Amino acid sequence: MVIHINIAHKATREPQLKMKFTISFLLFFLVLTPFAFSDLNVGFYNSSCPKVEYIVSQVVQTNFNINNSITVTFLRMHFHVCFARGCDASILIDSMTGKESENDATPNESVRGYEMIDEIKNFIEKVCPSMVSCADIISLPTRYFIVLAGGPNYKVPTGRRDGIIISTLEETNIPSPRSSISDALKSFNSKGMTMEEMVTLLGAHTVGFTYCNLVRKRLSNDSSMEPSFGNKLVGLCSMQGDPKVFLDQNTSLVFDNQLYNQFFLERGVLAFEQQFASDSVTKEVVMRFTRNGESFMERFVDAMVEMENIGVLLGNEGYIGKNCRVFNS
């Protein structure tokens, strides 16, 4: 909205000019406020796009009804996004001439869920064009998927902007299933996160899975696995192809603390995970979460919110992508 001010007869119209200037300034401030915050805020889109969370929740519910194992897809994407360049959605940009995308980098080859990001973005653009960032369209559905899987509900601070740079170099910072605990901790520390937060976020694997090609070597020469469980996995991985293996064998699709319980029973699927129950640095936290599922849920919320702050772009930084696959023209 523009308020025109006639500057003629300044002496006789000064009070009106002051009032009109004040109104104009206030309107200008109200329009810019959603994009001028210097920090993330719960309810950032309450004025600029009040239906955003409803749209996200409906798309999430529809997709979860079709495939209730999709929770881990978004947890994995979210982690890879934030641990590369930062929570700026740059992983969503497709490769272009002369520039390989982050989503083509080796650590991200197994990341999925891009089509659903497109689906959510398309709905939102019809209602609130150029208002909601792709970075926030990663954080919001992840929360809803966690809740649908039985995990904690929490408020997601929003207001992230999308990144203007894609890179594959930072991907080396993402811990792999073959990492040691000390190497993984260095990666977390480099992002400003603690050992406890690392152990906490590992709990997201309670709805996760891997494939036999990452397990077979351990089955042949690792004595730290409980024998009957090892025999079960040998039988599964002797099947043709590369079968999927749930990391939480008890409640595979439920977000709970059962993954930690399995570690103490020597039933961790990945050698990297099993180490957490015996390593002197991480053992105490694993034991606490094994005994107290509520404590795990509370700390998981804190760790997720902390992770979602890594490398965020705010205010006038970055931009709002119209299509999460390509930079705005």
Describe this structure in words.
By secondary structure, the chain is mostly helical. The protein has two domains: about 50-175, Orthogonal Bundle (Peroxidase, domain 1); about 195-305, Peroxidase, domain 2, CATH 1.10.420.10. The protein is built from 13 helices and two strands. Helix 2 (about 50-65) runs antiparallel to helix 4 (about 115-125), helix 10 packs across helix 12 (about 285-290) and helix 12 packs across helix 13. Residues about 1-35 have low confidence and may be disordered.
- Give the overall average pLDDT: 86
- The second-level CATH architecture of the largest domain is Orthogonal Bundle
Q: Say how many strands there are.
A: 2
Q: Specify the helix fraction band.
A: 40-55%
Binding site for heme b: 205
Protein name: Peroxidase
GO cellular component, one term: extracellular region
EC number: 1.11.1.7
